[in-house]
């Protein structure tokens, strides 16, 4: 430890900040008079269901789909009830099902994996790299004759290496489902995340960049995929829609409500301002920190900037630094702590690793249509566990002020100097 430097609060010094950082619900913390008015309009009209009500009206959900598609420069957008519903619908839209394998990263929310199982396909769990997104080199090593799709997840706001992933997909004739739950509005090489692969799946849950509380969106440029998605997400509504040349397929009920649609219309209008604020704050934060090993971002311009991540040489040191930053009122954490359950890290998906299924027959793992063999083990992705255990993470709330950021810089530099990580 350094001697003669400012003492961290953890060891009796004065904290760099006197209050915690603001909550990390970007769109949720922006909810105000516009959202309230939009919801009250739906309630006053009693038009809670997108297809009909006591009066004639223009569906807010339909308007949200149109405006979302226009904003993201994609031909089709379909509003659904959750991000998980968006993933399942996207898989079904691409014809993924029994006997198929889908590549998923070892660091993602568990919904990415359970969506594959809900589609009756097999998730194949693959390492992430220093970007904390799917490692393209590890991906290719996991391909089998049964691989039908890749699900890159743009984790914690940062784009995957989409050029390499799409090249692998083209070479092996694989479909690509982008999970954009944590990176709405981000880009890669100038294209919106979710519009690069065959289908994109978004979440509008409370913790996401923009929110309807619960909700999701499926986007695609391919008409046939859109038709299948629309039929599947609404088993009762296909008769209201035209699908030329398509025989209806059995579906479910993943419809979005008009209240969620009304909220989504307002929140979509907030997206670019939220992104601009978080990006500016992150740039200011990084400019004040020197000598740290930051997470690699595959396209800096496309980062949604919801967080800052830096790596330390050892897991124990990362734990100590995170604890010291918390004492400075900087809400830091380590992305993988063996003692803290976390649904974002594959090693905690114990029921998945055990291939637990909803019935004793064991489908889809033991489905007669599946001719492959997938094996899971707690130690199967050592690179992922190593990176996450050494990764110190801080949220970048759009509610932070410049003074907040300057205090966070002071705290990080003070703690890192104390541990001899920077001069």
Descriptive tags:
423 residues; alpha/beta; four-stranded antiparallel beta sheet
Secondary structure elements and their pairing?
Blueprint: H1 33-45, H2 60-71, E1 76-80, H3 83-93, E2 101-105, H4 111-118, E3 122-126, H5 136-141, E4 147-150, H6 162-172, E5 175-179, E6 187-188, E7 191-192, E8 199-203, E9 216-220, H7 223-233, H8 258-268, H9 271-287, E10 293-294, E11 307-311, H10 315-327, E12 332-334, H11 350-353, H12 382-389, E13 391-395, H13 402-418
Parallel strand pairs: 2-3, 2-4, 4-5, 5-8
Antiparallel strand pairs: 1-9, 6-7, 8-9, 10-11, 11-13, 12-13
Helix pairs in contact: 1-8, 2-8, 3-4, 3-7, 9-13
Task: Please provide a brief summary of the model.
With 423 residues, this protein is of the alpha/beta class.
Walkthrough of the structure:
- This protein has 423 residues and is an alpha/beta fold.
- Helix content is 34%, strand content 13%.
- The strands form 3 sheets. It has a 7-stranded mixed β-sheet, with helices on both faces. The protein has a 4-stranded antiparallel β-sheet with strand order 10-11-13-12.
- Helix 3 packs across helix 7.
Strand content: 5-15%
**What is the general shape?**
globular
Strand order of the largest sheet: 1-9-8-5-4-2-3
Euclidean distance between termini CA atoms: 12 Å
What is the number of helices?
13
The H/E string reads: HHEHEHEHEHEEEEEHHHEEHEHHEH
Helix content percent band: 25-40%
